[in-house]
Amino acid sequence: MNDSVDKLVIFLAKRDGIDKLVKTFQYVSKVVHWHAESAHPDVAQRAKNWEVASGLSRKAFRTGRFLTGFNALRRSPGPTPAFRLLGVLANAGEMIYFFFDHILWLSRIGMLDAALARRMSFVSAFGESFGYIFFIIMDFIMLKEGLKAERELRRQVREKEAKDDDEDDDGAKERVAKIRADRVMRLMAVAANLADLVIAVADIEPNPFCNHAVTLGISGLVSAWSGWYRNWPS
C-alpha cells in the first residue's frame, strides 16, 4: 500500500503525470456529458463545464512545452540517417502543435481575438497529426528491430543450451527481457499516438465518426491511460 502511494506521489510530481490525470478527467466528463445530455441536462452541463475546465487547464500547464522540441530536434538520435530524419519530422510536428496550442489557449480565455481559435485549432491539430504519423512509423521500425534482435538472442540461447554452455546465458536472457519491456512501452506509445491522431483528425476534418463523443472519449482515455502506464514509476 505504501509503495503504491509513493509511486502515485512520484507520478503526480511529473508534468506528464498531472497531464494524464487531468486528461482522464477531461474525457471521462465528455462521455458523461454525452450520456446524460438528454435525461439529466443539469448533470450534463456540469460535466461539460468540467471538460472545458480540464482542457483549458491542460493547455495552461503545457506552457513552454514547445521549447522541448528544439532540444529533441537538435539531438534527433537514431541508428540510421533515415531514422534521424523521421525523428526530425516527428519532433517538428509536435513543436508546431504545442506552439499553436498556446495561441489557441490564449484566444479561448479572451487574451487574444476569439476569432483566432478556429484557425489555431486547425494548425495545431495539423502539426500534431503530422508529428504522430512519424512517431508511429518510428515505433514500428523499432518494434521490428526489437523482434529481430530477440529472435537472434533466443537462437543464441538455444544453441548454448544444446551445447550445455551456460556462459553469459543469463546476460542474453536479461537482454531479451529488456527488449520485451521496451516493446510494451512502444506499443503503449503507438496506442496513445493513434488515439491522439483520431482526436486531431476530428479538428482538421470534422466527420461523424471522429467527432462523435464516444469516439473522442474512448480515444482520449486510451491516450491518457497509455501515457499513465508509460509514466508510472517502475
TrEMBL record:
List the subcellular locations.
Peroxisome membrane
Per the record, the domain of life is: Eukaryota
Question: In which organism is this protein found?
Answer: Eucalyptus globulus (Tasmanian blue gum)
Q: Which GO terms describe its cellular component?
A: peroxisomal membrane
Question: What residue intervals traverse the membrane?
Answer: 120-143
Q: What does this protein do?
A: Involved in peroxisomal proliferation. Promotes peroxisomal duplication, aggregation or elongation without fission.
Q: Which InterPro entries match?
A: PEX11
Keyword Transmembrane found: yes
Q: Which family, according to the similarity comment?
A: Belongs to the peroxin-11 family.
Q: What is this protein called?
A: Peroxisomal membrane protein 11-4
Q: GO biological process: any one?
A: regulation of peroxisome size
A GO molecular-function annotation: identical protein binding
Q: Which Pfam families match?
A: PEX11
